[in-house]
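User: My advisor asked me to double-check a structure prediction for Urea active transporter before group meeting. I don't want to rely on an old file, so could you generate it fresh from this sequence?
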Amino acid sequence: MSDTAGSAYVPLSQGFGYGIILGLGFAFALGMIGTTWALKRYHGEVQTSEAFSTAGRTVKSGLVAAAVVSSWTWAATLLQSSGVAYSYGVSGPFWYASGATVQILLFATLAIELKRRAPNAHTFLEVIKARYGVVTHIVFLIFGLMTNILVTAMLLTGGSAVASSLCGVPTAAACFLLPIGVVLYTMFGGIKATFLTDYIHTVIILVIIFVFAFSAYATNEIVGSPGKVWELLVDAAKRHPVKGNHEGSYLTMQSQEGAIFFVINIVGNFGTVFLDNGYYNKAIAASPVDALPGYVMGGLSWFAIPWLCATTMGLAALALENNPVFPTYPNRMAHADVSAGLVLPYAAVALLGKGGASATLLLIFMAVTSASSAELIAVSSIWTYDIYQTYINPKANGKFLIRMSHVSCIVYAILLASFSTGLFYAGISMGYLYLMMGCIISSAVIPATLALMWKDQNWQAAAGAPVLGLACALIAWLVTAKKQCGVLSVDCTGSNNPMLAGNVTALLSPLVFVPILTFAFGRQNYDWQSMRAIRRGDDSDIIRRASVSVESDVMPTVTSQSAEQEASEQKKLKKAAIISRSLTAFMTIAMLVLWPMPMYGSGYVFSKKFFTGWVVVGILWLFFSTLCVGVFPLWQGRKTMAHTVKSIILDISGKKHPAIHGRANAVEDEETSGVATPDEKTAVKAE
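Assistant: Sure, here is a fresh prediction for Urea active transporter from the sequence you gave:
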C-alpha cells in the first residue's frame, strides 16, 4: 500500500500540513495553560483530581451541549457521512445523522439516572463495581477500553488519511503528530480543558460547514444552486444508477444498501455512546439541572452537522466528478478511497481549490482533536479510578491521582498512534472500523443500561451476557462473510451483509441471555445504596498546599454539600428523569420512524423544488445548532467572562483585582457558565 492515500494529486504542501497539525495543537495547548492560570488566579480554582475528572460537577447546559456536539463529531461524522451520500445519494446523510442522533437523546435518560443513583461517581465503571463486584467490573473495563480504542483508532486513521491525501504528510507521521497538542492541553486543563476547547472546535466546524454549503448551493460557478445540483444528480444516475435505489436514483430515500447501513449505524453507535466513558464524564461534570437540556440540545444540534455536511459534500462529489475540476476526473472514485474518507476532501478541492483543501484539513483537525481529548479524559479516568485506585493503590491521595491521569494520557496516545499506524499498513480503513465497532462492543449496551435502570439484573447476567453476545456476534459476522464470499478478506468482511449480521446479533443477543441468566441464578433486588456510597477523591493535600501558595487573595474552593442541597438535587433529578423518558422516546420515534419511513416506503424521488426545500431545512437547522452551541454558552458564561477580563485589565494596570467581590456577584447569578467553580457560596462565606 502506498503511503499517500488516494490519488497522486496533492493540493497542499507538506509544510502546511505539519503547520496545521503541530502549530494549532500547540496554540490550543498554550491557550489552555493561560486559561488554567486565569481560573486559578481570578477564581481560586485548583487542579485537584476531582476537578481534572469532573470539573466540579457544575458545568452548564450550553457548554455540555457544545461538548457533546464536539465529542460526537468524529472524523467519521464528516468523512463517512459524505461517503455514504456519495454511495447512496440523499438517503445516506439522513440515515447517518438520524441513526447516530437517537443514541445521544436516549443517553440523556441514562445520564439523569447516573446522577440520581451515584452522585459522587467519577466513571460509569465505578458504578458497575459498586453494584456487581470485581468480575463484572473487569468485563465492563475491557468493553469500555475496547470502545475507547476503536473510537480513537477511527479518529486517527480518518484524520491521517486526509492529511496524507491533501498534504502528502506520511500517514504514520500524522498518526503520531495529531495527538501531541491534544495530550498537552488535556494534561494541563483536565476535563475543563476539553469543555472549553470543545466549544472552540465546534464553532470552527460549524463555520466551515456553512462555507461549504453556501459555496455548493449559492456561489460556485459550476454548481451554485440546489436546482443545478439536482440536475447533475439526475445525470449521474443515468451514467451509473445506484443498485437497490428506487429507479436507480440518487434522489430517493428508498435505498436498500442505505437501509442496511442505517441499521448497522444505529447498532454500532449505541455501543460508542453507552459504553464510552467520555459521555458519562460529561454527564457527571454537568450540574444536576443541566444534564438533560445539555444532552437534548447537543443531540438535536449535532444532527445538522453530518446531515448538511454530507448533503453538501457527498452530493457535490457526485455532481462534479464528471467535471475536470474533480481530482479523479475522468474516473470515478475507487471504493478504497471512499472507505478511507476521501469524498469530502476531493469535493472541497473541486468546489474551492486549495482553499477547500485547507478548510478540510482544518475541519478534520478540529474533529479529530476535540473527540480525541474526550477519549483521553475517558481513558485517564478509567486508569486512575477504576484500575490504579481500585486495584493498585486504594489509599492514593489527590496529588498522586493527578500524576497517574497525566501519565495515562501520554501512554495511551503513544499506544494508539502505534496501533493506528499498524491498521493503516494492514489495509484497515476508518470506514471498516466504523462498521465493525458494533460487532465488538454492542453486546454490553443492554446489560450496561439495565445496571442503572433495572434492580433485578444479577452479576451473572451483567458479566455473562456481554461475553456471550460478543462470541455470537463474531460467529455471525465471520460465518456470513465466509458464506457470501467463500474466502475471508478485508473487503469481504467489511461488506454490508456480514457487518449487519454481526452488529444486530451483538446488540440484541443480550435480550435472550440477560433474562435467562437473571432467572437461572436468582434476581438481585438491588437497593441502589452501594452506588450512593462511592466517595469523591481526597484532594485535601492539594487544596491545603494551594491555600498557602496561591498567587491571589482568592482562597481555593472546596466542594461540600449539605443534606438539604442533596435532597433538593434529588428532587430536581427525579423530575428530569420523568421528562427525559417521555421526551427522548418521542424524539427517537420521530427520527427513526415518523420522518424517514413514509418517504422510504413510498419510494418518492425528490423533485427539484423538494430537493431545494430539503437543503434549505438543513441550512436552517445548522443555524439553530449555532445558536444552541455557539451563542448560548457565551450568554450563560457572560458574568464569569466579564469578571475575568476585568480582573486581567486591573492586573495589567497594576491595580488589585476584585476577586472575592467578583466571585460573590457571580454566585448570585444562576446563569454562570461551566467555568464557575464548585459550591461558590460555601467558599465565599468561608473567606
